[in-house]
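For consistency, the fold was encoded as tokens, as this record shows:
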Amino acid sequence: MVWRLVGVFVLGVLAGSMLNRFIYWWPRQEEGGTLQSACPHCGNLWQGLEQISLWGLCFSGGRCHYCGDHIPLRYVLVELMTGILFVLVALRGQGALDLIRLFLFVLLLVPLFFIDLKHHRLPNILTMPGIALGFALSAGLGQLKSAIAGFVVGGGVLFLVALITRGGIGMGDAKLQAMVGAFLGLRLMLISLAIGIILGGVVGLVLLLFQIRGRKDMIPYGPFLITGAILASLVIA
């Protein structure tokens, strides 16, 4: 059992390495960037195990082999987070199709988390196919009605909030929560939404109290919704 989980963690780290490429590429796609793994400082392409940031952290001091600059902490966090979430999926999944559903859910949520955290965007290239995948997998598990309800309620509630607040909540957040509903169904979507709202409110209040952010500063809400979705699907479910 332990070695199986170690193998799943390693698989998650490798998947996280590939997600790092997408997270780096997405905001630069119009500049003709590629999905190859490269140092963000010097631009040299990493080869072999150099592409795994955790390996570099352990065996090269967390520095690029070519220029010697530190590998960004985000690269390590993405791999570590994906590895840990893969282990949680292996522990919580029930049956092959449910495991596939949760693994794909994680592979969508991790890049959405880090892209929104930095760029305040939730790419349609992930959320829209994610909604379709969620429906297909929920249908295979016999949970299509709940998935449709979760999609309508989750996306609909945040869509209305986005209209009312005029930018306080973005349409990307509505699409994200619709995707969560399509994957998790109505009950878990509502739990994830409640967690996300509470987390967002608490963190926002702390940032204001300590004057880290002002009232007019943008605070991305996606990471809170994603944290809620992860807790609902892999801890609470």
Notes: The CA atoms of residues 87 and 223 lie 20 Å apart. The chain has a mean pLDDT of 89.
